[in-house]
Amino acid sequence: MKSNLLQYYLNWNVKCYVLIILGISCLIVYVQQEYIIVPQIHNMLAVDIKTKEWLLSKFGEYRFASFVLTPLVILLRIYLVSICFYIGNILLERVHKTTTWKTYFHVSLKADFALILAPLLNCCLILYAGTDFAANIMQKTSLLYFFDVDSLDAWMVIPISLFNIFEFLYFLFVSMLLSVATNRTYRDSMNFVTSTYCTGLILYIIIVVFIVLCIVE
């Protein structure tokens, strides 16, 4: 039953899926702009009214860029995950040789919905109960919640925050989709994702930490 549902999800029309993802991403960007960024500009205590008006006007001129950049970032993320899988398949030879780049990209595309759940949930919480409530709830989904952020070095915040419920759900979800798409066992798919995606994620963390250290120093 579970495999049938996953197969149905994989076979679901890609154009409809992409349109839904684009719609969700635009909604997320709009809510973040209207309920987070704009109020932050209005609440700047050390800034006079004219400066606030200037900031708001400039923000209004370029706010459309976020609606373009967000889908591009999502597409880049999907491509990077696909590359991890494809290179891992060549190096590890754990998946059948007939598995193509198209299969990995398709799985990465459909699995990315799990990562969009985090900003989507945050968006819904903001609309339902406000930004403070949303921030409080979202903090509890990350390992960072158990640390005193003020006592941490700047380079430690991002790596720790990446260990969250949604990242774990993505790991499980993409493993299940790969299992169905490649006709492998779920355990084999989990091992493959661990060896490929998790390795790429660690490399990403190292690069981010290096950049943060360079900026801080």
Automatic annotation (TrEMBL):
This is Yip1 domain-containing protein. The chain crosses the membrane at residues 12-31, 64-92, 113-135, 155-180, 192-216. Keywords: Membrane, Transmembrane, Transmembrane helix. It comes from the Bacteria. The keyword Membrane applies.
